Amino acid sequence: MITVVRNFRRRSREQHAGFSLLEVILFLGILSIILGTAMAVSISTEEARIRQRSIAEVEQRGTQILETVTKSIRRSEAILSPAINQTGSVLALQMTLSGEFPTIFAPTASGNLLLVEKSTLFSLLSPQVTVSALQFQNVNGKSVFVSFDIQAIIPLVKKVTFSRHFEATATLFQNDQSTAGGCGSCPVPVCQNHTEKWYECEADACTLSVSTFAC
Length: 215
Prior knowledge:
14 strands
């Protein structure tokens, strides 16, 4: 009797000493499901973060451009280009301070937006976003209607482009008009041979700027 009990206990220990093949397969299957779900959630969360960051960049840059353009228009003395009741992709303004004369907004072939103040060029966009369909409409020489699209390519597994349209109208403050620091009759900026050229005000005299950009 004692021998039978011992043999039974020994067989029981041998049966429970390890996992069966079925148990191992079930464990690996459940583990792969858990890992797959966790990875999918992680990827989805990261894509949502990237998407929101790109959208915020578009919103921020578009708003900043509108503010910069409208402030310059309101502080300007006259609209040099486009001509009265005409529309163009380049806006040139006659300013009171010689250090800002002229002030020019112009797009580049790569989708950037340049701000020119006298002979200094500034980039208004980051590499992550581009501008398109930029239009400036000179309304009776008294205000400018501005419209443009800002877009960003969202770097997901399948690239997605997010775009938003911006527009506004800004009016010149007529009471602030003066004589552009003594340079009220400089030639209007012009695009010649794919190069934008303009005159700047120096010591109350109009001088052809050495700075240029492709147009």
